[in-house]
Amino acid sequence: MKDHSNPKKKITSKQVVAMAGVILLVAIYIITLLVAIFNPGESGNYFRICLVSTIAVPILIWIYVWMYGKLTNRHTFADPNYLKPEEPKED
């Protein structure tokens, strides 16, 4: 009998980029919290950085996934026509 309890899965570059984005955002949030606690005078600047990165990091990840799909000719969730079914081409 074969053991299927721990099959090896290939980690894609999209997963690596997504995890890096999550880690980056969590780190920024923690740094912002610590600065707000220990140095209230600088907390406003860090809060602005936190707000901008909360919007910018997911957009940069989406652009990466979209470009990856375009360069490899694959259909990804970042494509604008992702949910539309393929229409047959007419000659």
- Pattern of helices and strands: HH
Please tally the β strands and state the result. 0
Roughly how many Å apart are the termini? 54 Å
Average predicted local confidence, pLDDT: 80
Return residue spans where pLDDT drops below 50 for at least 5 consecutive residues. Answer: none
Q: If you compute it from the alpha carbons, what radius of gyration comes out, rounded to the nearest whole angstrom?
A: 20 Å
The biggest sheet, with number of strands, parallel, antiparallel or mixed sense and barrel status, is: none
Helix content: 55-70%
Count of helical regions = 2
Structural class: mainly alpha
Query: What is the 3D form?
Result: elongated
- Approximate strand percentage: under 5%
